[in-house]
Amino acid sequence: MTSRKIELKISNQDYLKDHRTEGRSILPAVESLQYLARCASELDPPPDVLCSYDAKFSRFIELPPSTPLLKARVELKPVGEKLLSAHLLTKKQAGRSGIVRTVKHVEVNFGTRAESWSMDKEPLMERGVALEGVGIRFSSRDLYRDLVPFGPCFQNVTGSVFLSDSGAVGTVVAAKHPSPRGPLGNGFVLDGAFHLACAWGQRYEGLLTFPVGYNERKIFSPCKTGEEYWCRIMPAGKQDQNLLFDIFIFDKTGNISEACLGAVFNDVSFGRLTPPAWIQQDAHKDQLESLRKVCTGLSILELDSMSSYYQNILTPREKKRWSEMGTKRARDFGSSRIALKLLTRQILKDKHSPCSELETLAEDGIHPKIPADLPTARYCSASHDPRFTVAVASRCPIGVDVEMLSEKVTRGAGMFLGDNEQLLVSKSPLGTTETLIRIWTVKEAAAKALDMNLAQAFRQVQVLSVKKDTCEVVVRDRHFMASCAQIENHVVTIISICD
Asked: What pLDDT, in 10s, does the model give residues 56-66?
């Protein structure tokens, strides 16, 4: 490879007017990278442009409406044997002085480093198929109305957006606009993933940030125009005033299309732009803090944040059981497997075992288990309702139940209430429905902890008192305390049968 300078003309097409900030249209970073990769690919021999490192987006490239073609220059320079440094520059006349100076906008290294791509940088598959944590859900319309105010051509996140403290997930379409063609594939997908990261930063850091670079990007299979992709954003800490993210993009079958590690986001407006109040509401409130204190580990995920290819995380035994179920039951079963595998990772701090080898189904094909050979996590339990799936582990027999507040529990109260429990309900300051749901979840959780069926639990588990966060329980003359937590209109209850 040899050094080269290439004159470039960037076509200021109509769709680019929708990529704007503070009233200015700017060239998307992903298109700058495409121009650089295309020029680099023309060298003989070309570098591997599907691998890139140390990208910096130093200055916006503004696209004035009066400029149909923007003149730019690409400078290419070898760095060692297999890396090529690529810069995108423009010339700018400074005010009245008339002095023309060269402005560097984008720089990146293409090629292969001495160290190969490390497999432990790839996402744990179960993290890629669902979002862990109690999150917030909103529509892509809200995303583009309030958080990322780009025009229609750059509103490529579709459907629902899910955010939790563990990151973000969403679907992004590879739009069909006449963007520059090149070896990197459709850039609208990574651009949409940047929007999800921007939303996360607004909720959990209170900052409206833009991408200003990344550490490493690898394209396994270039995104194809017209296809939909599943994006998973993982917070990767802070560096100075920057937010860092690892971004993973999957195709509809669950194969990884590309990864962008150490994506750097910065408040380039210097505080002029601020997030709306609604996105930050209750962002740092741990609604399950009291439950985490009574178990070894707890994992919760939003059921609707699961991707369409979640079955990829199943072991052969799990997949066989899953294949025998109907669609809804199979999805619930799959969500429990994800939660249990995440729980295993949490307890063992295991980042390397393939998720398809983490067995969470006991030999009987019914009971859950976690493959953690630890005395502090010998027992586990899982539960789901229409929104959440929860998994817990403990040194003692443990049961968990999550239920949504509903009038249905009132209609079925006679089935599971004893005489004394009916009196509790009538006198409870919590109200009928909230009291009944706590009693129901206590008995469900106790049934799992004691390995009873529900009919046995209804008769043998007696609730002596009901408070918002705790319930006193007696089972076969043994007294226990159950712990409860409420997330909006959902109640999660844990009971641990310890002596």
From this structure: 999 999 888 88
Domain CATH number, residue 150: 3.10.129.120
Residue 351 in this model has a pLDDT that exceeds 80:
no
Q: What is the pTM of this model?
A: 0.93
Cβ(387)–Cβ(411) under 8 Å? Answer: no
Name the percent of the chain in helix, strand, coil, to the closest 5: 30, 35, 35
**Residue 469 near residue 481 (C-beta atoms within 8 A):** no
Same domain, 244 and 298: no
Q: How confident is the model at residue 114 (pLDDT cuts 50, 70, 90)?
A: low
Is 108 within 8 Å of 94 (Cβ atoms)? Answer: no
The more confident residue out of 477 and 404 is 404
DSSP letters spanning 405-463: --THHHHTHHHH--HHHHHHHHH-TT-HHHHHHHHHHHHHHHHHHTT--HHHHHHHEEE
Which residues are CB-neighbours of 365 under 8 A, at least 6 positions away? 317, 321
Same domain, residue pair 206 and 329: no
Are residue 204 and residue 55 in the same domain, yes or no?
no
pLDDT per residue over 216-269, tens digit each?
999 999 999 999 999 999 999 998 889 999 999 999 999 999 999 999 999 988
